[in-house]
Amino acid sequence: MKTKGAILRELNTPWKIEEIEIGDPKAHEIKIRMEAAGMCHSDHHLMTGGIPMAGFPILGGHEGAGVVEEVGEGVTDFEVGDHVVLSFIPSCGKCKSCKAGVANLCDFGAMLLQGEAVSDHTFRIHTADGEPVYPMTLLGTFAPYMVVHEASAVKIDKDIPFEVAALCGCGIPTGYGSSTRSGDVRPGEDVAIIGVGGVGTAALQGAKIAGARNIFAIDPVEWKREQALKFGATHVFASVEEAMNEIGNATEWGMCQKVIVTVGEVFGKDVDTWLSITAKNGTCVLTGMGNMMDNEVTLNLAMLTLLQKNLQGSIFGGANPKLDIPNLLSMYKIGKLNIKDMITREYRLDQINEGYTDMLEGRNIRGVIRYTDADH
């Protein structure tokens, strides 16, 4: 079918809305009418080359929610009319990682940037001229329709707003899990959140729900610091340097048992700074993405060893998508997890560049693209 999507044809150029052709679902695939797509910083990394796809043109978007319109052969877990969230990392449930309980490291993840469908290694999306299109993490939520493998979809309750559900495809489980799974925040611990955009705000809420004592939110944008207080931060600062003495005084200079790094872009030169506010035997969780070509890190190896600190990478917050996405949305439904107020603005698809400008200039916690009947 013909539809449209937000396309990148080369690095460091704006998103362009183009006509695209979406193929029919094949075995173990479903076709989805998209209703909402979250605007995550990771899609901006496509524009800069920080996340290198296997080729161009690229269809962006990896957070989204919608309605199943068609199912392919062999699909048993979904039927037409189901509401679903798209999980940016698939979960096949069969590979060694999934069986070991780390579904966020599913073997299908090795194919996320290649553009070819995991079902048969062909392309589902083409331009109007017939060129194959590389969808972000095999999804491409910046389009009103998509065809995806069933491992990339999670069924949800039909009474959940699509714009809320969309954020659970990446930002909410990534942030929340960075605190509760990868960081394993315990009651009474002191926690620092570095960067309080969408992922950071979810991490902040995760730390609060886990029972953290002090939650130090650090972000250079004043408006985001004000929002962080509303979501449960006990202290806010513009930088680690500004926070150092206050964190020390509040923790009797024990510093933070957990430091969760959720900045939009990680630079290796900053790692030792984050570890400087990490307690002895504490853990610094790196959730934010660095450039895949960057392999230089500033780190005092002696202090890492002598103080027995931990530097922990985290993808998708260590989430099990098929389990955690419904659980997080159930927490939203009973008022335990505030997702609605994380949505700062809604945009049309043709406003995508405006939305990313707002994100980069610190005006959004999370922007969401809402599709309408005109898009379908």
UniProtKB/TrEMBL annotation:
NAD is among the record's keywords: yes
CC cofactor: Zn(2+)
Molecular function as annotated in GO: oxidoreductase activity
Organism (species): Gordonia phosphorivorans
UniProt similarity note: Belongs to the zinc-containing alcohol dehydrogenase family.
Protein name as it appears in the record: alcohol dehydrogenase
Signal peptide from the UniProt entry: none
Reactions mediated catalytically: a primary alcohol + NAD(+) = an aldehyde + NADH + H(+); a secondary alcohol + NAD(+) = a ketone + NADH + H(+)
TM region positions: none
CDD domains named in the record: Zn_ADH_class_III
Domain of life: Bacteria
